[in-house]
Amino acid sequence: MKNIVFIGVGIDFDKVFKKFSCRKGYENEKLFYLTYNYRYNFIPELLNFDDEKMVLTFTNVGVNINKDKMDIILVKELHDILIRDGIYQNDYRAKNILYDKELNKYYLIDFEFWSNEFTDFRKNVSKCQDMRFSLELLPDIV
Question: Using DSSP, how many helices (H) and how many strands (E) does the chain show?
């Protein structure tokens, strides 16, 4: 069964809740943020996690923009910083880049496939068929 993907903003309009249906993806993304949460200023801050419900709570840092309007050189520089540090996001798609217009700043998101080596995320999906996640407003956990 496929999960429906939603995005919601919390009560204060400053939070995004990411709910996983697969423990492996949840644990991997949580590990990334617990390890690197304050190291990079171009990833959202992890505010909270709920291991029972497999929900990560992040600061709301922006919106998706059309890839034709994206500064690809700047986005590549952000990825290059991670790669220099041995971090591969492994899901390089435009939907995993957010933009804050007020700050004129890009953020990289969705690290459930990250590792210290480059892999094709589509190969990882077969290891956990429901690796897809749900982004939704979850007022019962705030």
Answer: 3, 7
Contact 40, 82 (CB under 8 A): yes
**Percent of the residues in the chain that have a pLDDT greater than 70, as a whole number:** 76
Structure token pair of residue 126: 């077969």
pTM of the complete model: 0.79
Q: Which domains does the chain have, with CATH numbers?
A: 15-137 (1.10.510)
Longest dimension (CA), the chain: 40
Structural contact between residues 136 and 6, judged by C-beta atoms closer than 8 angstroms: yes
- Per-residue confidence at 142, pLDDT binned at 50, 70, 90? very low
Give the Cα separation of 70 and 99 in Å (integer): 9
Residue 61 in this model has a pLDDT that exceeds 70:
yes
